[in-house]
Design a protein that fits this description.
This protein is of the alpha/beta class and 416 residues long. The protein contains 18 helices and 14 strands. The model has no long low-confidence stretch (mean pLDDT 92).
C-alpha cells in the first residue's frame, strides 16, 4: 500500500513541476532560489571523499534556522562523514560557510529516480531529519535501503498539524517509517503519535535550539555606538510590521532624541519597500551595508548580521509576531541576556515564547502604541532591562539538556 501511495505522490509531484517552474520565472526571489546550484536538485554531485570515516550521516534541514539549530549537533559528530542538505539557498550558503559538514548540497527533488540516485551516491548509515522535514520519497527510499531514520528537535505547529491531520491516511504510511522521533515538547510528541497512528517510537528531549552557538563577539564601537546608548532592535520583521516599528520609533524619539533603532527585515528582497515606508514616515535612516551609522535609525540590508546586533542591543523585538506569521526564534536575543518583546502570534515558537513569558524574560506587545510605551519603560529603568535580560538568559540556560539527550539517542542508534 505504501508503494502505491508513493507512485501517486510522485505523479502529482511531476505534474506540479511545470506550474512551479512557471511561477519561478515570474518571481525574482524564487528564480534566484531555483537556479542556485540547480544540478544539486537533480542529485548531480561531485564525488564524495569518505576516507578514514567510521560512518556516514545524512542530516537534512529545511532552511537557515534549522542549520543554525544543528550546529552543536555537528560539533558532536566528529569522526563521521557528514552530509548536510537544505531546501533553501540561504540554508545551503550558511552550511557551506560553517565548514562543519564534509559535504553540503541542496535537497534533491523528491522524485524517486532522483532521490534513489542521491542515496546511492551518499550511501548513508543514518538519515537525520530536523524538526518537520517530511518528504515521502526520501523516507520511503531510506527505509527501503535499511537506512536508520531519526527526527530530531521534532515539532509540528498548530497550523501545520491541521494540514497534516487532514491527509493523515497518506502521511501515516511515511512518517511511520521513521525509527524514532525525538520531539521538542509533549504537545509535539502527541501530534507525531496521532500523525503516525501510533507507529513511531516518540520521545521528548526539549529544544536543542537552546544549545545553539550564540557566540557573537560584536562590540558597540563596530556600529559607532557608545556604551550608554539605548539600542532597540527589531529582528526578522515581516510585511506589515515595519510600519509599526517606524511609528513606535517616532513616538519614542519625541521623548528620547538619542535612542538608537536597528530594523532587520526577514527578507532582504523587501528592502526597497521598507525604505519607502521609512521615507513616508519621515524617518532619516542609515543603510547598514554602507557602514555609515550617522542617523539614529539603521536599516540592516546585509545578510547574517542579526546575531551581532542582538548581542549589542538593550531590548529586542522578534518579528513575524504582531502580524500573523507565527513569529521567529525568541531564544536568539534571550541567549544574549536581552529582554524580548513579541506579538501574540508566536505559534511557531509556542513553548519557547511561553517559557520566556512565564519566567519574566519577555513581554507581549499589541501594536505600535504598546511597543512605544514598553520601550520607554525600558529606557527609563536600566534595572528593568537588566532584570528581564537575566531572566531571559536563565530560561535559555535551564533548557540546555536537550542536546545531551539527543546525542545520546543518536549514538545509541548509530551503534545498534
Amino acid at each position: 500500500m505504501t508503494k502505491a501511495y508513493l507512485v501517486i505522490y510522485n505523479i502529482f509531484f511531476i505534474l506540479f513541476l511545470p506550474f512551479a517552474v512557471f511561477v519561478v520565472f515570474f518571481n525574482k526571489k524564487y528564480r534566484r532560489e531555483f537556479f542556485f546550484e540547480l544540478s544539486e536538485r537533480f542529485a548531480i554531485y561531485k564525488p564524495l571523499n569518505k576516507k578514514s570515516k567510521k560512518g556516514t550521516i545524512w542530516l537534512h534541514c529545511a532552511s537557515l534556522g534549522e542549520v543554525r539549530c544543528v550546529e552543536p549537533v555537528l560539533d558532536n559528530l566528529k569522526g563521521y562523514y557528514i552530509v548536510l542538505t537544505s531546501v533553501t539557498k540561504s540554508g545551503r550558503e550558511y552550511a557551506q560557510k560553517l565548514q562543519k559538514a564534509d559535504f553540503v548540497a541542496l535537497l534533491p527533488l523528491d522524485i524517486y529516480p532522483i532521490v534513489k540516485k542521491a542515496f546511492n551516491q551518499i550511501n548513508p548509515d543514518m538519515l537525520v531529519l530536523v524538526e518537520t522535514e517530511f518528504w515521502a520519497t526520501m523516507l520511503y527510499t531510506a527505509a527501503h535501503k535499511n537506512v536508520k531514520i531519526i527526527t530530531i528537535n521534532g515539532r509540528i505547529s498548530d497550523k501545520s498539524f491541521k494540514i497534516y491531520k487532514k491527509s493523515r491516511l497518506f502521511w501515516s504510511k511515511f512518517v511511520g517509517l521513521i525509527d524514532i522521533i525525538i520531539a521538542r515538547s509533549e504537545d509535539d510528541a502527541r501530534r507525531f503519535r496521532i500523525l503516525s497512528n501510533g507507529k513511531n517510537n516518540v520521545i521528548v528531549s526539549g529544544n536543542i535550539k537552546y544549545n545553539s552557538g550564540y557566540t557573537s563577539y560584536a562590540k558597540r564601537q563596530h556600529f559607532s555606538l557608545n556604551e550608554d546608548d539605548f539600542v532597540f532592535t527589531a529582528g526578522s520583521t515581516r510585511e506589515g510590521e515595519e510600519e509599526i516599528i517606524a511609528d513606535a520609533y517616532n513616538m519614542v524619539r519625541s521623548n528620547f532624541n538619542d535612542v538608537k533603532f536597528f530594523l532587520v527585515p526577514r527578507h532582504l528582497s523587501r528592502i526597497v519597500d521598507v525604505t519607502e515606508i521609512l521615507k513616508n514616515k519621515n524617518i532619516e535612516y542609515s543603510m547598514f551595508s554602507l557602514g555609515e551609522f550617522s542617523s539614529n535609525f539603521v536599516l540592516v540590508d546585509a545578510f547574517g548580521k542579526l546575531q551581532d546586533i542582538y548581542s549589542i542591543s538593550d531590548v529586542c523585538y522578534v518579528g513575524g509576531s504582531i502580524v500573523n506569521k507565527g513569529g521567529q526564534n525568541p531564544i536568539e536575543p534571550a541567549a544574549y541576556g536581552k529582554p524580548v518583546l513579541f506579538g501574540k502570534n508566536m505559534h511557531n515558537f509556542k513553548s519557547e515564547s511561553e517559557n520566556l513569558i512565564k519566567n519574566c524574560g519577555a513581554l507581549i506587545v499589541e501594536n505600535q502604541y504598546d511597543l512605544a510605551d514598553k520601550i520607554k519603560k525600558f529606557i527609563g529603568s536600566k534595572q528593568l532591562s537588566k532584570h528581564m535580560g537575566q531572566n531571559a538568559l536563565k530560561t535559555v540556560e535551564s533548557q540546555k539538556g536537550a542536546l545531551l539527550f539527543t546525542m545520546k539517542k543518536l549514538k545509541e542508534y548509530l551503534n545498534a
